[in-house]
Structure formats: C-alpha cells, structure tokens
Amino acid sequence: MQTCDFLVIGGGVIGLSIAREIRKRRTDARVLLIEKEPSCGAHASGRNSGVLHAGFYYSPDSLKAKFTRLGNERLTTYCEEKHIPLNKCGKLVVAKDAADLPSLDELLRRGHANGIELQAITETEAKSIEPRVKTYQRALFSPRTSTVSPLQVVNAMQQDAVREGIHIQCGTAYRGRDNGNVRTNRGSIDAGYVVNSAGLYADKIAMDYGFSEKYRILPFKGLYLYSDEPSGSIRTNIYPVPDLRNPFLGVHFTITADGKAKIGPTAIPALWRENYEGLGNAPCRSKARRSTGTENRRSIF
Ligand SMILES: Cc1cc2nc3c(=O)[nH]c(=O)nc-3n(C[C@H](O)[C@H](O)[C@H](O)COP(=O)(O)OP(=O)(O)OC[C@H]3O[C@@H](n4cnc5c(N)ncnc54)[C@H](O)[C@@H]3O)c2cc1C
User: Fold this and answer.
1) pTM for this one?
2) What does CATH list as the number for 2-45+151-208?
3) How confident is the model over 70-110, as pLDDT tens digits?
4) How far is CA 43 from the centre of its chain?
5) To test the ligand 1 pocket, which listed residue (43, 209, 237) has its Cβ within 8 A of the most ligand atoms?
6) Residue 71 CA: which ligand 1 atom is closest?
7) Which of 8, 4, 2 is nearest to 195 (CA)?
8) Euclidean distance between the first and the last CA atom of the chain, given in angstroms as a whole number
9) Strand 167-170 versus strand 237-240 pairing type
10) Which CATH homologous superfamily contains domain 51-148+219-292?
11) Where are the domains of the chain?
C-alpha cells in the first residue's frame, strides 16, 4: 500500500500543472501523480494544435477569458525560460461573407473587454500580413497568439515536476475506490486528497466520488492535414469566424512551432474515448502523432 498526501490522477497538462502548484504551496506534502500510459501527454495534451490562444473568444465575465489571457502570458514566459521554441506568428480571423461581420465585431468587443491586444484591419492590411489570405472586407489580427510543440511543453513540465519532488508513476491506472483507498492496476494507494485530472475519463472517476452524475463525456476527435510546402510559406495562423454558439473554433490553418502549416482539426464524433484511428486504437505516443495528422502529406491550398 502506497501512501501520499495528494494523489493526482492523470499526467496531462492539467494534472502536471496542479501537481506542481500543490507542491509549491505545500512544500512538505507527498504528491504522487499516476498516469495510465507509459508516458505523460499521450492524449489531448500531446496531440493538440499547440496554440497559445490570446483570450478574445470568451465572454469577459468568464473564468475562461481570465485563464486564457493569464495562461498565454505565463506559458509564453515559461517557454522562453525553458528555451522551448515559440512561433510568435500571430493570428488572423477572417470573414467569409457579410454574415460573419457581426460575430467578427463581437470578437473585437470581447477582446477589448478582456484586455487583449487585438487589431481590426482591412482586407489589404490582412494581405500584407499573409498575401494568400482571403477575407470579406475586414479581419482581426491577434499579435499575442503563438504556437508551440505541446509535447515539448508537457515534457518540460514533467521534468520540472520530478525535480521539484513530485513522484510520477506512469503505467499506473486508476481502477476504482476500495474502503477509502484508491485501487490501481499496481496496488492500492492511501491518499489524503485525490485530484481528478483524468481528461476523457474524468467523468467516470468523478462519479465514483459522487459528483457529475448528470454528465457524460461525448468524445469528439479532430483530424489534421499537413501541408508539404516548406516552412514559412504561410506566415500566420488563420481562423474563420466561429459560430459563437458552439464550443469549436472552426477548421483553421495552424503554423507549427517550426513553421509548417497544418489544417484542422475536424470535430467529428468518435466511436469511443481515445479513439484516434478508424476501428483500431493508438494509445502510444508515436502512433498518436500519426493518427492526428495524415501520412499523405500534400498541398492543402
Ligand atoms: C483536436 C484538439 C485541438 C486542441 N487544440 C488546442 C490548442 O491549440 N490550444 C489549447 O490551449 N488547447 C487545445 N486543445 C485543448 C487541450 O488539448 C486540452 O484542454 C488539454 O490537453 C486537456 O488536458 P488534460 O490534462 O485535462 O487532459 P489529457 O491531456 O487528456 O490528460 C488526461 C490524462 O489522464 C490520463 N488518464 C485517464 N484515465 C486515467 C486513469 N484511469 N488512470 C490514470 N490516468 C488516467 C490519460 O492517459 C491522460 O494522459 C485542443 C484539444 C483538441 C481535442
């Protein structure tokens, strides 16, 4: 039986961040993080668009708006301190027709209310930022949006966590509760507090503790298509005006940290949680990276 003061379940960016914050506030606490995969960041945290969003999508009174703005500032500083390459290429939000303009204006209003640097620009100005971009009449430019390799961020956080005295145990899956202890595939853990940061399985763990009874996670997956054009051929991230009623940003062009363009993600219902390929599955990192993009690299313009 292992014992700890805090047990963090899940080694994604959220679990690692919470574990480090606990350790910072309670330097004497024994903090144990368990991750079911052989390494941290094997799921959403290691396979996303890698965008450090500026924070102008969310309504000003929301925590999302506050956390996105603060997160952008702090992650930028963190990446710079750790020498993790950041592509500070900014982001254009473009309108496809007149119907998009009210939402474009709403994004501008939210950006200003959230204290985010955001520029309303003409089509000509947009073309001076990225010559191949098309927009209807006007666009927004966010200079604070940048991109990073999400796996590099997770790896750096994992190394920091270990250095700070957090015990990280990969290959250890939460299986349930037993007489007040946590049951895993590698024995039981007697934990003072349990932190549930298990991503796509967070709802199931929450239910074991009497929360989230009315909620179920509906898995969606996003596919990316990579361009075979050389690095730097597109200068900035390009996003459509989103439908603000939905939680999706719309299919966008992302410029990766090394300057390559990819388009995506789609948002399609997945057959099950962590379902990245057709009827197969790809729990390990190397396969995961293939499944979120496509092997068939071709021109996407
Ligand atoms: C297609 C896509 C693109 C995105 N793009 C961006 C972006 O550009 N910028 C941005 O900021 N955000 C983006 N996001 C969102 C971002 O990826 C997530 O908000 C973030 O990764 C969530 O982190 P997490 O730690 O909560 O979850 P995860 O990264 O899923 O971590 C949860 C961990 O818990 C582990 N776990 C699960 N069950 C158990 C168990 N029973 N026992 C032990 N461990 C368990 C899992 O293996 C996993 O490692 C994107 C998301 C998607 C899907």
Assistant:
1) 0.90
2) 3.50.50.60
3) 999 999 999 999 999 999 999 999 999 999 999 999 999 99
4) 10
5) 43
6) 11
7) 8
8) 57
9) unpaired
10) D-Amino Acid Oxidase, subunit A, domain 2 (3.30.9.10)
11) 2-45+151-208, 51-148+219-292
